[in-house]
Amino acid sequence: DDSSTSSSRARRRTKFHAATSCSNLVEAFPSGFEVTLTSSNSLSERRKVMPLADYVREHVLATEVMPDSKSNETWYLFGETYTEKWKALLDGYVLPPCQTCEIEGATALAFGIGGVGSGVQWHVHGPGFSESVHGRKHWVLYPPKKTVAEFHKDNSSRAWMEETYMDMVRAEGEDGRSLPWECTLEEGEMIYFPDMWWHATINLDRYTVFVSSFTTEHNIGQ
């Protein structure tokens, strides 16, 4: 019944939250387990391989991404988590309540970890959901028909939010630029991003874990 299903989902969420904590995540993988990192600029065009434990220690816990950091030189774990070992971990994730999430093989999961100030500069892709499993994450978004305020693909998303965005707020729309939609996801909260909406993100806490569920509901019935 609905109550037992709800209880089962709650237990799975609690278990996944514990498994992905800072103290447990690295231990869930073999010693020396390597991950593929991407640059955090708009195109995520660069790749780097390093042990997961080193990434968490050096790039997440010990590093804060500052406004003057270059996103093409800032390494980020997100999206390159499709191996069998990652799938074994993500099998414990509770999918969002959506139409395509109930269809086997119609949802692709991507796991991410970032530290304070990390995030991805403005970019677009298909639709889906993103949940902050640990820590908080700030989002800014523009609908497809809106013009995104100017940005450089290799500057950090933090620079855009703390400099360009604040200039726009001070101008109060008099310069013709539209303010983006925005929200902060608290731990355990989720956002839906529609198809081809521009968005940029910034992680607000020292250890932020998030899971994105990329869906195909815009193709159903076509």
TrEMBL record:
One of its GO terms (cellular component) is nucleus. It holds the Pfam family Cupin_8. It comes from the Eukaryota. Residues 67-222 form the JmjC domain. InterPro entries: Cupin_8 (IPR041667), JmjC_dom (IPR003347), JMJD6_ArgDemeth/LysHydrox (IPR050910). One of its GO terms (molecular function) is cis-regulatory region sequence-specific DNA binding. This is JmjC domain-containing protein. It comes from Corethron hystrix.
